[in-house]
Amino acid sequence: MYFFKTISEEVRLFQKTFHNFKYMKKLILVSFLACLAAIFQSAGGFFPGIGYLISPLATAPILLCSMFSIPFGFMSYLLTIMLLVILQPTELIIFPFTTGLLGLGIGASLHFLRKRITIIASGSVLLMVGIMSLLYVFRYPVLGPVGSDSFSLLTTGGIFLFTFLYSWLWVEAALNISKRIKPIILK
Predict the structure, then answer these.
(1) What backbone torsions phi and psi does residue 141 show, to the nearest 5 degrees?
(2) Which of 18, 30, 138, 147 could join 68 via S-S bond, C-beta 3.0 to 4.6 A?
């Protein structure tokens, strides 16, 4: 079955290649990816409408950096948060709990887990925890009028279904990205 297949070994090869990079090259790559994530995340504030379609792409640079190395992925995550303080403070509450957390979760799970379903589930659980924290702990209406501030099983089930599908999309995107950048990284 599709979900129970192991992921390709290309991700492991990228991790070994990244480990052999010089430290300065790693820092430059992390900084570049953090800048991309901050630009993508702040697009919703700079270009209302079309920017909200660009904003979810902030997951990709954090996921890619976390896929290479968990500590450098976390560094990229923190650097993106600091850049958002300067660029778009209104996006500062969304990024750490949604797009950034999803990128970190999937990237880290690509290190430890081998089955596609477990990688998707771990990203889904982290994103769900982030969204639920925003909704019920911080009372931030991240879902707009769809989600209320009182706990509901229907809302929770809808969030779980959405996070699972969204995480699945990003796992497949990460595997496709790794195939496409293979010639660039392995030079």
Answers:
(1) -75, 70
(2) 18
DSSP H helical segments within 22-114, as ranges? 23-46, 51-54, 59-68, 70-87, 94-97, 99-112
Identify the CA nearest to 73 among candidates 102, 46, 116, 39. 102
> pTM of the predicted model, to two decimals?
0.90
Cα(105)–Cα(110) distance, rounded to whole angstroms?
9
The separation between CA 34 and the C-alpha centre of its own chain, rounded to angstroms, equals 12
Question: In this structure, what token pair is assigned to residue 123?
Answer: 């990203």
pLDDT tens profile 20-72: 889 999 999 999 999 999 999 999 888 888 888 999 999 999 999 999 899 99
Torsion of CA 173, 176, 181, 183, to 10 degrees: 170
Host H or E run for residue 157? helix 153-180
Whole-angstrom distance, CA of residue 26 vs CA of residue 11: 17
